[in-house]
Design brief:
single chain; 334 residues; alpha/beta; ten-stranded mixed beta sheet; 10 helices; 12 strands; 36% helix; disordered N terminus
């Protein structure tokens, strides 16, 4: 049954709007030591930094008991949980621009890419692994088409759950799971801290791939200056006529620049949306520790820059290790 091992969060409805887990992973015996959860956020190519984060944590003796992954976080988290992180890292480091293009099987469908080639790559290493057979608790986050429900996949085929989590609308075809079409979980929960806590993690470490990216609330163009000049909304509203706003009979001059293409519009729109949702979710359910690699200069689809991304993830995690170890010690003394 679809609902076995699936949790659904119906935003804005239900009792208290809380997630409801139906027959998720069976309860296990409580262990004396602290259970550590790792929430891996979405962010496309920036997600290779998750590999560096996991490497640094392992070297410090910080091994998660729970992993919740969204989008690229589901890919890295699933491979790690299945003991295939080495293979994934080798693959990521081997990518070039040409090879990335070769993996994209374009077609006319619900998305621009069917995803079949990527699925076969995942199946090569993960084969027919089931989520419930993994040595640690694991779940992926997806969004149900039409209803917008947040879906937590905690059982069933691992590859299918991963694919459903990274099915970016308009880019990848949605994935059918027991009669329901699922797409990218970043539409509802880019950093699944809530899911990690629901799977019994005592201390949750999250990796925010967009933490360094600050999208300004509102910017109004100063049409008297160069096209690159921007001002804050407060300044503009205090002196509207100075900036050419609300001036009758004075048409605004548009900057001389080429109009953005479809890919640029889609990527920027998704980036803005993900940033806004992530901020809201982090405010409502903050992690115990947040790791934010400095990835602002890395494009969402620059998968060929894995070496740089992994290094940035490692560096950010190494800086967070002392604080994480202090938290673990303090929690064990309570």
């Amino acid at each position: 049954m679809f609902w076995d091992g699936v949790a659904r969060r119906n935003a804005g409805s239900g009792e208290g709007g809380e997630p409801m887990i139906v027959n998720a992973v069976p309860e296990r015996e409580q262990r004396s030591r602290l259970k550590i959860g790792l929430a891996l956020g979405g962010g496309a190519a920036r997600g290779w930094s998750h590999i560096g984060v996991i490497r640094a944590l392992h070297e410090a003796g910080i091994v998660p008991d729970v992993i919740a992954g969204c989008s690229i976080g589901a890919v890295v988290g699933g491979c790690y949980a299945a003991g295939k992180l080495d293979e994934l890292e080798t693959f990521a480091r081997s990518l070039t621009k040409r090879r990335v293009m070769g993996l994209l099987d374009f077609h006319i469908g619900a998305g621009l890419i069917s995803g079949g080639r990527l699925q076969r790559l995942l199946e090569h290493d993960l084969e027919d692994r089931m989520i419930e057979s993994l040595p640690m608790k694991f779940c992926t986050i997806s969004t149900e088409l039409m209803s917008g429900h947040e879906i937590w996949l905690t059982r069933g085929p691992l590859v299918r759950a991963i694919r459903a989590s990274y099915a970016l609308p308009g880019v990848f075809d949605p994935v059918m799971v027991d009669g329901r079409w699922l797409m990218d979980g970043a539409l509802v929960n880019p950093i699944p801290i809530t899911a990690a806590r629901a799977l019994e993690a005592d201390l949750v470490i999250c990796v925010n791939l967009n933490g360094e990216i600050r999208i300004r609330g509102t910017v109004i163009q100063n049409f008297e200056a160069k096209a690159t000049d921007e001002i804050d909304i407060e300044d503009a509203l205090s002196e509207p006529r100075r900036w050419g706003i609300f001036s009758p009979g004075r048409p605004a001059r548009r900057p001389q620049a080429d109009a953005p293409g479809l890919a640029t519009v889609m990527v920027d729109a998704f980036n803005i949306m993900q940033d806004r949702i992530a901020r809201s979710r982090l405010a409502g359910d903050p992690p115990d520790i947040m790791i934010s690699p400095k990835l602002a200069k890395m494009g969402l689809f620059e998968f060929h820059r894995a070496e740089e991304s992994i290094a940035l993830g490692r560096f950010a995690a190494e800086r967070a290790v002392p604080e994480i170890l202090d938290l673990i010690r303090d929690s064990q003394l309570v």
